[in-house]
Structures
1.
Amino acid sequence: MKKIFLIFNFTFLILNCLYCEHFIQAGVFRYKEEAVNQQLYLASRNYPVMLNINGHYRIIVGPYEDKETADFTVLKLLSDENISAGLINETDAEKITESSGVQEVEISDEVLGELVNVAFDFLGVSYKYGGMDVEKGIDCSYFMQKVYKSLGTVLPRTSRLQFKIGKEIKRDELIPGDLVFFRKYIRSSRIGHVGMYIGNDEFIHASYGAKKVTISSLNETYFRKRFSGARRPL
């Protein structure tokens, strides 16, 4: 019995490690302007970065799916950017994934319109699983990453990690530019797809089914049954 318990416990620890995210603290500032400058600089260098407010203004880099990548990024921040950084402990990381204290920024209709227009420029681009080349094909999460980068916002690479950042939004609170997420299977809780809301219950996405970037309705049976929630990264 003891042997069985030990095997179960070891398996649980492995699974828990596989599905955790790792965040890096890359600066703490007293003044908002200094923090925003650091955030914009790291975003321009293609780091997935956000501003967290918890007494002070903290620069958070991540999330990363594995600790090795996070550790490497800590070293890279020091060697390439001369920024002293460190991994955030699990308790603090859980608060970040729940969006506790993440800054909410007032975004103008003009900026949101620009974001949607950038997304529309991709209509018809071929879909390819794992694709990151507009000429050869892109997948859903890279599409969102590419669109948001036009505004200087760097999103994580996968839809599952994109679901962990920003402000959680209810469906009746959606505005153009919000990210909408879906499960691959109805009975699963694992995120498998992402698109961008454009208004009138419609969203634009790189669709596996259509094999291209297209516009669909949240009310379509397939998406209605698999809708998992929405996030506002900006």
2.
Amino acid sequence: MRALAIGVLVLAACGPTPKARGGDAGIGDANTVDAQLQISCDPGSGDQQGCGCVPGEAARACFSADPAKRGVGVCHDGTQDCPGSGEFGTWSACTGEMLPGAESCTNGLDDNCDGRVDCADPTCATDPACNTGCTNGQTRQCYDGPDGTLDVGTCKAGTQTCANGMWPGTCPGETIPTAEDCASPLDKDCNHLPGCLDLFSCITSPACQSQCQTTKPECVCPKGSGDTATCPNGMVGITMGAFPGTVECCPCTANDCGNPGCCAESVCAGAAACNGLTCNALPASCNGQVNFDCDDFPEDCDEPCCKCTMCP
């Protein structure tokens, strides 16, 4: 499913796809640390890879790294198009863009797109090319962490103080990446993915597993977890609270007809919100269970236990 699937699969791996009725979320490609950002299908977002579009519509400008670096230094937009034919398509990967890289310290360019060039960049403070003479007591920012982590999460610059006309070879006061604390809301490894959102570190952490909590007598707990979680036929999966949140399966109501998981039920018969969906009988192989989450397109097109989808 797209929920946390384009490159990082963050949320879906930690429990049933974490969304309320009708919600959606995703994580972006991880070409660089700066690119490990949440993808939004809002028309104004920088990168919409995998989001729905109409095949043949005009190409769009795109940028898959930190939006704060878009158009700064050497960073510039690429383009993504909507290939294919028919009624539904998805935006392609962003091509032709220039993403942040390591600051070279000597080429006169802002390579990491933070608005600071060469020796003015804290990441160059301990580079020999920038260890020039200085005035005692003069200070400058410094940072020795990996490229792309400065000012991300808890990572921050330190301060060097000139002594005996020379800059020190260390960086006092800096905070560089440490192991992710899955129970904390902070991004301690500085990869744009705090706590449970960091699949690479927290996929198996007990702190990141959704817990079942039923709110009504007629609701039940889902079977399984993640993308394999299911609900009894006629019910829809619901996630409540901040991630990882609580999960439950509840009977479809008229208020749920905007969710494809309920559009095959009699309570949604004739609902305008279900127009355009393709609905089929639940296969016997599903054993009376439907997918916990059936409102992602096109990712749910290959889910046999979703009775209604936007798939042709």
3.
Amino acid sequence: MEDGINKPIFVVGSPRSGTSILTWCLGQHPNIIPLEESGWMGDLAIDLAIYYQIGTARGEYSLLSSMNVEKAEFFAAFGKSINDLILRHRLDLERNRWRRAAGPSIPSHCFVPQYDVKTRWVDGTPEYSFHICGLRKLFPNALFVHVFRDVTSVVRSMLLFPRVSGQSLVANQEEAYRYWVRTVSNCLLAERACGPRIVFRLRHSDLVDTPEATLRSLFNFLGEPYAPECLEPLVQRINSSNVPADFKIDERPTNRRLEDQAAELCQQVEETPQPLDASAEAVEEIEAAFDERVHFFATLASNYSKARQKIAALEDKSANITAWAERLAKEPKGGKSIIEHSPARRQRSKGAYSPLKALHKYFGRSGNRTS
């Protein structure tokens, strides 16, 4: 189907909200390829924005400007290349998955390809909740599915996730609440900025309670016919934390304000339907957030260099003061008294020059691309 080309699907939402199982459900559709979580496309969008700035910095004397290459065209060209690359290697993906499942003893000629007829793909990387704006620049026709699950269930699942993978998603309960708030808040902003034709809110509880009706509604949004085989992964949950029924979150509050914020946001989403129209204010907000992130990484090297220079200057000053003090200490008379009452000594007693403080001055916020 021609109109299905370069219309990828991204399943977003907080980790442990059902993004993996929904991705696999969609991947059973005869026209949708389920991808492994990629994790790099959002960062690519940020890098491309930086490169476009470089390529247009000198106006008509810059390559992109001199050729009238617009930013939207620049992004979309890379997105199309990614889409073409994925579709071109869809059989390799299926063959490798078959080999892992079949084991080394099964002859290769037993492999029967199916992905050759599929023209769309779905990526369920939860971290893309922070990159929806950039992904839309890469893939202007992309659609997003926001899987929403209540905060208590997500936090419980995050804390017990090491039972499944042996790896921890979060260090503690507070970090779990914070991660949920950040991902859900970003997805809600995308709902307001893009509107219901671009972002579809899917409640995890609906997928559990009424799976067929929920998937029918989702496929209507995606513009694909309903396929009963997409229900099959729901028969046996994958990647589940298997949270015991009697498991309780530690009731000792680590950050009561944060937990109250999460509970309030959760109640708001559960009681409020998705906005019917896109908001111009939300568009400005999500674009501003993307631009701010691009600016941060574009100036990161320069700011780091300045911080290092500042540290070196402070270290030199501290070394000079120390040397001066040592020379005074060797004076036969009055050296100790002079040192104890010198302005430099009093200043150092209040807090020596700290390279770490200099770094905090220049890097007062996290450099994480998902922040």
